[in-house]
Amino acid sequence: MKEHKKYFIRLYSGTGNELFIYSFYKYLQRKFNLNIFLDINSGIIQKFGTNPEGTKLTLNNFKTNYKIADNKYCYIGLLGKVKRFIDKTLISKRNYFTENNFNINVKNIVNSNHRINYIEGYFQDIKFTNYSKKILRREITLKKTNKYFYNLKKKINFKKSLCLGYRDFGYKDKLVFKKIDKILDNLNLKHKKIYIFTNNMNKLLINSKNLKKNKFEEVKFSFKKNSTQALDLMTNFNTFIIGSSTFHWWGAYLSNNTKIIYLTNNIHKSIKTSKMKLI
To answer: Distance between CA atoms of 51 and 45, rounded to whole angstroms?
Structure first.
């Protein structure tokens, strides 16, 4: 390990975001043997954008293994935000590595000549997740399951069920609901019970015509409090209907039994798998 150089990756909140960043952490650590740390403080509460529920750190609910950055490297507080902006845009651009249109130059990171290095982005790329997929599946398992999800896992016949993930980000989503109805018209899915993972069940019921024609059950949870429990349950299904939410993407990706993943939204090409079908 190159101990003389240190790398600090900023962790953004939202379970899906955290897992992509964690997979990139694992990629750099395992492939290049970098001395790398996660900043779990400066970016972890975002009550807007990609984390509308204001989810706090969820990574520690799993059996993850990483080194935590000392706060002196983390640009904490308002002054920290100002200093970060100055550093990454004006002063320290050579040792502050950021994504550009979802691309990150790994070669520049590894070959940096600086003792202290900062990395920032979401790193949504299948090559990073696939590199450590077996380890991720082992580590992204719950330390503790609550009673509600434990009982659900015992009750559900996953082979005869379907996982529907809908995340309401405040858009009208008319086309999304049409695509959900089109998928549910599939004769191969008629016999399956639908388990729904959403933050807006009422909107889904109002706008989907075919959902109410099927047997369904809402998995009731709070993204802010129980997102990791819900994600763990999702990984047991083999058929999925999901949108652009990275939370639902991880639920489908970590499943050992995936047959098909129907997509209601176009997602980044970099995270499409061979079992994903855009409707």
So the answer is: 8
Q: Which of 29, 118, 18, 106 is nearest to 59 (CA)?
A: 18
State pTM to two decimals: 0.93
Distance, first Cα to last Cα, the chain: 45
> What Å distances lie between residue 50 and 55, 148, 179, CA to CA?
10, 27, 23
Shortest CA distance to 227 belongs to which of 66, 65, 61, 63? 61
Give the separation between CA 233 and CA 111, rounded to whole angstroms.
40
Q: Which stretches does DSSP call E strand in 129-228?
A: 161-166, 193-198, 216-218
Q: List b or e across 193-214, with b for residues whose CB sees 16 or more CB atoms inside 10 angstroms.
A: ebbbbbbebeebeebbeebeeb
Q: How far apart are the C-alpha atoms of 168 and 51, rounded to whole Å?
A: 11
Residue 54: C-alpha distances to residues 2, 200, 277 (Å): 36, 16, 30
Phi, psi at residue 262, to the nearest 5°?
A: -85, 130
Quote the tokens at residue 155.
């009750």
- The sheet that has 96-98: what strands, in order across it? 36-39, 6-10, 116-120, 96-98
Q: What is the DSSP letter of 157?
A: -
- For residue 53, what pLDDT band results from cuts at 50, 70 and 90? low
